[in-house]
Design goal:
This protein has helices at 13-20, 36-43, 59-63, 83-88, 101-116, 119-127, 156-169, 182-197, 211-217, 237-242, 260-269, 307-326, and strands spanning 3-7, 23-27, 48-51, 70-73, 92-94, 148-152, 172-176, 205-207, 220-223, 248-251, 274-277, 296-298. It has 369 residues and is an alpha/beta fold. The chain binds (2R)-2,3-dihydroxypropanoic acid.
């Protein structure tokens, strides 16, 4: 075979087969991520790497692989990859948008209500045999219906979550994003008009002028921003202090967006405040003290963890790697509205790379049918 690809973990077999059709595969089969020196030693002679979000691919790693043409990430987020270094070396970087939008939004909803209604505390109480009968004040939580939900970052997942909360729980929506999301605003306005026709109260949607404005208004704040140098610790002590005392903070995007030490301190001082976390600043570790807090519910980065989604992610990641090696063009997706459905069914997928995040910067050709 002309090409060689390093795959840093076991993937569904179908996806591995797609790569095997065009390249010799070297696969890391341990449960734990390959240590950095293993990545470096495995990719020396490789043309591609299929990486996970736990694999840090920086300029040193790239420079150890002179033939490297593609880094295909098995994730929609790619903060583990030095994208500028990849661009400077002409290396294509792939990701997996579209298959985890609703899946991750649903986990965000699950965490929201687990925190609001103290589900994990109740579960612990039952298992410990500490439930001795119904009481008027047992584990009282917060009603979110008709409250205000705030989303920080109105991209694909933020928008899907916002719609679930607005449509399902009739919440007012406030969002903070550098760009206006006209489509979301229109959608909520149309839904509000529909409700009014049914004789129900409408809800509102507006873009906050600044993060602190949103924090002061929302009963639930859910973070959906990409992790960059600018967004690291986007939520720190001052931001937590700007939130309502009984607000809920949810993070299913990237751990370092929240200053976890500040969060522990805030939750200690504000027992009515709650947090639902899927991601952690120094994953898989948790900040000391976090696990002792009853007002925090934690799960191990499960946002995209459904069978359909994880298989779809593998399919897209494999398709990205194979397409780059075959010299195929890039699927013509708008930056924030990718429709990758043609890659996921049983039909022969298009001869294109579903999603290359630096396609524009590298001047790559787009698929045109
Ligand atoms: C991603 O794809 O970025 C998610 O964090 C994986 O669950």
């Amino acid at each position: 075979m002309q090409y060689k690809v390093f795959i840093t973990r076991e993937l569904p077999q179908k996806a591995t087969e797609v790569i095997r059709e065009v390249a010799e595969v070297d696969q890391w089969t341990d449960q734990l991520p390959p240590p950095r020196e293993e990545i470096i030693s495995h990719i020396r002679d490789k043309d591609g790497i299929l990486s996970l979000l736990t694999d840090k691919i920086d300029s040193e790693v790239m420079d150890s692989a002179p033939k490297l043409k593609v880094i295909s990430n098995y994730a929609v987020g790619y903060d583990n990859i030095d994208i500028l270094a990849a661009r400077a070396r002409g290396i294509k970087v792939g990701n997996t948008p579209g298959v985890l939008t609703e899946t991750t939004a649903e986990m965000t909803v699950a965490l929201t209500f687990a925190a609001a209604r103290r589900v994990a505390e109740g579960d612990r109480m039952m298992r410990a045999g500490d439930y001795h009968g119904w009481l008027p004040d047992l584990l009282l939580g917060s009603l979110l219906f008709r409250g205000t939900v705030g989303i920080v970052g109105a991209g694909r997942i933020g928008t899907a979550y916002a719609r679930m909360m607005v449509e399902g729980h009739k919440m007012d929506l406030v969002y903070y994003d550098l760009r206006a999301n006209d489509e979301l605003e229109r959608y909520v306005a149309d839904y509000a008009a529909f409700l009014e026709k049914q004789g129900e109260a409408a809800m509102s949607c507006r873009r906050a002028a600044g993060l602190h404005e949103l924090l002061g208004l929302a009963d639930v704040v859910s973070i959906h921003a990409a992790l960059t140098a600018e967004t690291r610790h986007l939520i720190g002590a001052p931001e937590l202090a700007a939130m309502k005392d009984d607000a809920i903070l949810v993070n299913a995007s990237r751990g370092p967006l929240v200053d976890e030490a500040a969060l522990v301190e805030h939750c200690r001082r504000h027992p009515r405040f709650r947090a639902g976390l899927d991601v952690f600043e120094r994953e898989p570790a948790m900040q000391p003290g976090l696990a002792d807090l009853d007002n925090v519910v934690v799960v191990p980065h499960l946002g995209s963890a459904t069978t359909w989604t994880r298989e779809g992610m593998a399919t897209l990641a494999a398709a990205n790697a194979a397409a780059v090696l075959c010299g195929w063009p890039v699927w013509p997706t708008a930056a924030d509205a990718s429709d990758v459905a043609p890659f996921l069914g049983d039909a022969e997928p298009p001869h294109a790379a579903p999603s290359i995040v630096n396609a524009a910067e590298l001047g790559l050709a787009r698929w045109s049918g």
